[in-house]
Amino acid sequence: MKTVLIVEDRRDTRHMLSDALKRSGYNVLEAEDGEQALEIVSKNGIDAILLDILLPKKDGTEVLGEIRSDKKKNRIKIIMITAVRVKDDVIADYRRLGADGFLLKPLFLKTVRNELARVLGEKIPKTAPKKSSAVKKKASPKQKTQTFKNSL
């Protein structure tokens, strides 16, 4: 099982990505800032990182540079993410710095899964993972009526 580190300061975005990637079969770790990300990378075997550019403490560019300068960690695949619209030459600059991919927010889960699969050399999933059998079925009209009556 591949391990993915999500580095994102927005908790809701981080949790949404984490839940989706766990359902897709990845082991997921989370960091809310650049310093925490580097600490996690130093203590764990990370295969890929989803790395926000604008982060507290150390930004994504600094984290990218530190990881790429360490020969032991240089194999980690890094996908930069940002909400800021950037020109193609900026994306090219990040690729020159060592980014393996680049995603713009808002993030679409299918796009994130496909990009992760691409950088990790995995087969790109054709469909979303199957939902758990624990998902509730839609209530029938009779059940809805009964629920309504019970609430009175």
Protein described:
The chain is α/β, with parallel strands linked by helices and 152 residues long. The protein has a single domain (3-129), classed as Rossmann fold (3-Layer(aba) Sandwich). 43% of the residues lie in helices and 16% in strands. It has six helices and five strands, in the order βαβαβαβαβαα. Strands 2-1-3-4-5 form a five-stranded parallel β-sheet, sandwiched between helices. Helix 1 (11-23) links the parallel strand 1 (3-7) and strand 2. Helix 2 runs parallel beside helix 3 (60-68). The longest helix is centred in the N-terminal third of the chain and has 13 residues, at 11-23. The model is unreliable at 130-137 and 144-152 (pLDDT under 50).
Give a short overview:
By secondary structure, the chain is α/β, with parallel strands linked by helices. Helices cover 43% and strands 16% of the residues.
